[in-house]
């Protein structure tokens, strides 16, 4: 757990207490994966944990193997949110693919978005299917807000070997993903909020 993570967790706890927040509507954790995750972070993590084994760290699938990094943008899809939130994940990927390439399905646990064919995303990839408990283990956003209705962690990859990807593209891809998520909530959730406010006494 990093210092900035602890600051965020403490802030959310204070907001929940001071503003009586029972449940967050949306939590997005915007990540960037680079080759240094493999060349520096992976080996350092293994050494820190006292389980450094050269073959396991740098071999196929190891945290120190650059070839184990998905080549492209993807989002984490929580199995517990399906099928109700199929369109939520699709909206984000549809928006991002206009800006940068999506991590292809078939490698590194990358799969198509749920019900991809309905949204024109069949064969596109861009999704890693997880469960909330696993999110907590790997430090994804479900481990922080716990009960947000919508939540995902994104990954963008500026060190692609198959496409030219600039830092500006990475930033625009994250912005496209976030904007698509918010637009989706405005369309789907805002009418429900308006009805709830209208029915509230006083």
Shape: globular
Radius of gyration: 18 Å
- Helical content class: 40-55%
Order of helices and strands: HEHHEHEEHHEHH
Structure description:
It contains 8 helices and 5 strands, in the order H-E-H-H-E-H-E-E-H-H-E-H-H. It has a 5-stranded mixed sheet. With 202 residues, the protein is of the alpha/beta class. The chain has helices at residues 3-18, 36-48, 54-58, 86-96, 132-138, 142-145, 167-188, 190-199, and strands spanning 26-32, 74-78, 111-112, 126-130, 150-156.
Secondary structure: elements and pairs:
Blueprint: H1 3-18, E1 26-32, H2 36-48, H3 54-58, E2 74-78, H4 86-96, E3 111-112, E4 126-130, H5 132-138, H6 142-145, E5 150-156, H7 167-188, H8 190-199
Parallel strand pairs: 1-5, 2-4
Antiparallel strand pairs: 2-5, 3-4
Helix pairs in contact: 4-7
Which key features would you list for this structure?
globular, 202 residues, five-stranded mixed β-sheet, alpha/beta, 8 helices, single chain
Task: Give a brief description.
This protein is an alpha/beta fold and 202 residues long. The protein is built from eight helices and five strands; from the N terminus they run H-E-H-H-E-H-E-E-H-H-E-H-H.
